[in-house]
């Protein structure tokens, strides 16, 4: 399936706060993510609590260490909601 990608304002605000090293890591992961957001190398998984709260399935992928991207699907659109540590799950 071909996806289109969009990011929320919150995602970009969080991205801007990352260190240069973290931004570089996120860009490398993007190359994989844009081909397949569920690529096993990204360790994709559902975030059950957020999914229940928002009424849609929320997923997370790993960038490095504790750095994650949270996203959901809306038809063929992949919405990147936030980027950061596990604290973004709250």
Helix-strand layout with pairing:
Layout (H helix, E strand, L loop, with lengths): L3 E4 L1 H9 L2 H14 L11 E2 L1 H7 L3 E7 L2 E8 L2 E8 L6
Parallel strand pairs: 1-5
Antiparallel strand pairs: 2-3, 3-4, 4-5
What name does CATH use for the topology? YaeB-like fold
- Report how far the terminal alpha carbons are from each other: 30 Å
Give the name of the CATH superfamily. Answer: RelE-like
Helix content: 25-40%
Compute the CA-based radius of gyration.
12 Å
Describe this structure in words.
By secondary structure, the chain is an alpha+beta fold. The chain has one domain (4-89): YaeB-like fold (2-Layer Sandwich), CATH 3.30.2310. Helix content is 33%, strand content 32%. It is built from three helices and five strands. The chain has a five-stranded mixed beta sheet with strand order 1-5-4-3-2. It starts with a strand and ends in a 6-residue tail after the last strand. 19% of the residues are buried. The model has no long low-confidence stretch (mean pLDDT 94).
Would you summarize the structure shown here?
With 90 residues, the chain is an alpha+beta fold. It has three helices and five strands. It is globular.
List keywords for this structure.
33% helix, 32% strand, YaeB-like fold, 90 residues, 3 helices, globular, single chain, alpha+beta
């Amino acid at each position: 399936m071909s996806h289109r990608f969009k990011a929320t304002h919150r995602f970009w605000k969080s991205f801007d706060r990352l260190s240069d090293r973290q931004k570089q890591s996120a860009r490398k992961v993007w190359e994989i993510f844009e081909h397949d957001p569920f690529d096993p190398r990204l360790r994709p998984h559902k975030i059950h609590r957020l999914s229940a709260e928002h009424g849609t399935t929320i997923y997370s992928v790993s960038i490095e260490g504790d750095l994650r991207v949270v996203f959901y699907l809306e038809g063929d659109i992949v919405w990147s909601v936030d980027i950061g540590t596990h604290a973004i799950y709250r």
